[in-house]
Structure of Putative signaling protein:
Amino acid sequence: EAKSAGSGVFRHFVEDMEHNACIRRTLEIDLGNAIQNNEFELYYQPQIDLHTMKICGAEALIRWNHPTRGQVLPDEFIPVAEKIGLIVPIGNWVLKQACKEALNWPDSINVAVNVSCVQFGNVGMLGVDLLQEVKLALEQSGLPAHRLELEMTETAIMDDVDKSCAVLRDLKQLGVTTAIDDFGTGYSSLQYLRSFQFDHLKIDRSFVSHIETDVDALSIARTIVALGRTMGILSTAEGVETKAQLEIVKEIGCDKVQGYHYAKPCSVENFRSYINTFSKSRISGSHRVA
Ligand code: C2E
Ligand code: MG
Ligand code: MG
Ligand code: MG
């Protein structure tokens, strides 16, 4: 009895696994066609400079407009794309598209692009050359290098420190800027942080969203800002959703903010009208305009 019930459970388990594997396989196949089919789109989320209260940049965030499933968010497909190597062509598309679109914005507005650890060539992919792809994207678009920022996580860099160090040095030489994403959630060594010479660090949303209620989150955020200061790195608060959070991150000395309080990521058309509305508004910065 118990045995047959057990095997029944096991059979369901196997069927579930097969079902999931099937879904994953379909996702992989669809993902493989998505570039040619023009199904990717970049959304942009504004970044506000807390010293000037002006828009100083936007982060490019990929969206997949799937023909039957509708809009798919990156957390669902980026890990799959990384696993099967498709993140390299996708990442190259993102670089080119972001540079091309940013060229139509005011010079004072930079564009930030997320770079996967695979694009660093850190996880055994041969023939991956991030530097070459960045150069190409800049040349083809005509975007000045200083207007492009590359965001990477601590974990992506720490995968292969020597390699990352070399790639980052070359990128810096090219004139692009760099940011550590989701800072405080990965593991990083302060020693390396110093030698990598990042331009920005982005305080992870998990600290910012608890900054009003959790004294630990607040003191971590304070410490990150202070750490950045001593190393000449500017800090950005990610995921600021409320006026109260904005006031606190300002008070503790963050240089920039990004978050729903100002705007959710939006299409490039909507981002362009956001820029216009924001700059026309007399009280620009002190109120959300979208
Ligand atoms: P990320 O780089 O840390 O991007 C910030 C994420 O937080 C975005 O999610 C953004 O929509 C969300 N966010 C921003 N402000 C707020 C807020 O105030 N509240 C809340 N609840 N969320 C906020 P999204 O667009 O779903 O992207 C998720 C992640 O996917 C990104 O995290 C990044 O790691 C990855 N990603 C996105 N686009 C790309 C890409 O082009 N290439 C690569 N390799 N990864 C990408
Ligand atoms: Mg990012
Ligand atoms: Mg982030
Ligand atoms: Mg993230």
The longest helix spans residues 2-34.
